[in-house]
What does this fold into?
Amino acid sequence: MAQRLFQAEAEPANLIIAGGRLVDPAAGFHGEAADLRIADGLIAEIGHDLRHPDAERLDATGLTVTPGLVDPHVHLRTPGDEHEEDIASGTRAAAAGGFVAILAMPNTTPVVDSAAVLAGLVETARAEAVVATGFMCAITRGLDGRNLTEMGELSAAGAAAFSDDGRPVADAGMLRRALQYSSITGLRLALHEEDTALSAGGQMHEGAVSAELGLRGWPAVAESTMIGRDLGIARYEGAGLHICHVSVAESVAEIRRARELGTDVSAEVTPHHLCLTDAAVRGLDPAAAKMNPPLGSDADRAALIDALADGTIDCVATDHAPHADHEKDAPFEEAPFGVIGLETAFAAVYTHLVEPGMLPLQTVIERMSSGPALAFGLPAPGLAAGRTADIAVWDLGASRVIEPPYASRSRNCAFTGRTLRGICRLTISGGRVAHRLIEAVA
Amino acid sequence: MELYPPKPPRDRRHLISVADLDRDDVERILQTAEGFESVMHRDLKKVPTLRGRTVMTVFFEPSTRTSSSFELAAKRLSADVVSLKASGSSVDKGESLRDTVQTLSAYDPDVIVIRHSSVGAAARVTEATDAHVVNAGDGCHQHPTQCLLDLYTMRAERGSLDSLHVAIVGDVAHSRVARSNIQGLRLMGAKVTLVGPPTLIPRDAASLGVEVRHDIGAIAAADVVYVLRMQKERMAAGAAYVPSLREYTALWGVTSARVRPGQLVMHPGPMNRGIEIAADVADGPNSRVADQVRAGLVVRMAVLYDLLAGPRPGAKAALRPVAVAAEEVA
It folds into this structure.
């Protein structure tokens, strides 16, 4: 099988993470304190009072050790818009947020729709990426919705999956062909679900707040009817589908029904849709509150949390979407859609869902790590001897006010100015230290 | 559960939204406007209140009555006035709103009056200038001075706004005037009914604290029939909010047969006679359209006065009668 994740060469880690509480439900850890020794980038042993002459010892007393996070939906803006993000800055932001693997979307300039463009990205990632980075390639050439990309060649060149993200595959016949043809690669299609005839001109979720503000509403059915259509086609073809950034209760109902019918579906939800509602649009700041799909109602948020809890939605994804200040510093209707999220994803979910008791930490870790990895056929990070070290270490007692500077090159964050609890102290991706805010001890 | 307070705090340095005002603010501004009526009836229609102050009006959208009445209001108060229209300015060359406002702010204006086609534009301007900002219309969001002049007109007729029943008829979905008036009327204790085709009333309009009706017969119960402009582009192919102007007029046009004696008819202008309002209604005894235009002048004088020379924000009705200020010039 072709390699699908790429990162820069670096010294493999040799260290002992001492005294942290381990949380990894799949490995049977639910907060037990233990030492974890990493040798040459692999987890060598997990136990008590571990010592090794070659290993630096890090004091993780009071900290929480989890499998590293996996983000299946990131915009790295490379090639073409490197002033907004590039592979180096984007993967540094990922590492700062505890992510050990990310998948980048292909809606760049040019679009990642040929092996030549993909090869350039792979080469750059091998030189610059501090965490493992995979590249989704377009379903249709130039995202035109009409002509299939050369999926066989793209798969051989290391494509991680296929997506026209940013746009729907509007033509149902086209989607059917893409599902049929992509089966030769074994790679998944990730769909941005939006009936643009219903969402046209939409600036925010249609509801009480849009009625008050006079912003054009974006009806929930613009998303849910497309999801219903596409899951029906996938079921008919016996194909799998990944649904990007689910945002409304009606969509959750469609996915739940498809699961009951045995459809092979995975689905993601963003931290901002889990934590915020369309009430945030009242501030009329597009840098914080304008994204596609838009923030939903209280009821939508509640349905998304329920769906994440019961596994109807199996992944959290940031949809990290950097934009330059001068683009976002505009009246709401003139600004582009999107917010960054890599650095705040875990802290937002921890603060808004775990601390108030709405979701257990174990579930959050699964949905942010093994869930997305399994959906895309990637190795799932885990705390077990013999595995590659893909680990995040958290200070769950510490909080901070979210504000620039960010590791990301952009600043359009939905949580700017808000206080979030949960700071990432250490990220190890592919056995390499990618982010570290923790002192060595003797 | 929402962890954060949804509403930004009210800011009385500016007039961006009717939500910036409380009942006392509205009363004070309307009383101040009443005081300025006496100035309108004199030979020398000018008071020195804002002498040495600078008011800039910046209109990124076409406007006749709002821009002219702000300009005249500032001049009646003896302010220096600079009026900028978007066409012919650097805006045509792609200058951003922030850069335009920062450039104008270099002249140190006391007030910037702005109209823009985008929701939230006036609020953004407050971040780029030290001047007081008055929103003269931002997209489909707010038009607070139109609301104040409408309240002034209704109050002048009926004495009180409390329990007044106002029917707002037409394209509510695309109307900043409707949004400001709903807030203002509800603030002052009036009852509001929205009447229009289902395609032009926002889906969740009832959450704004109003009654929603789709039959024109619903206007019969109202004290005031407030008619909104019906824009022709709403009938464009593909947009199709209503099938034709003919059908719109048949079903929702405000005609003399549908207006009963004693009802007031108002319209923010510009009117499409024969479409949303019949000509005989527009010119008839129920119409208060001309009063609205006159009210626009004194109310905008009062808004400028309130920001620059008025009592401290949050104070009760003006303690110093404006008539005194008027006499100072004599």
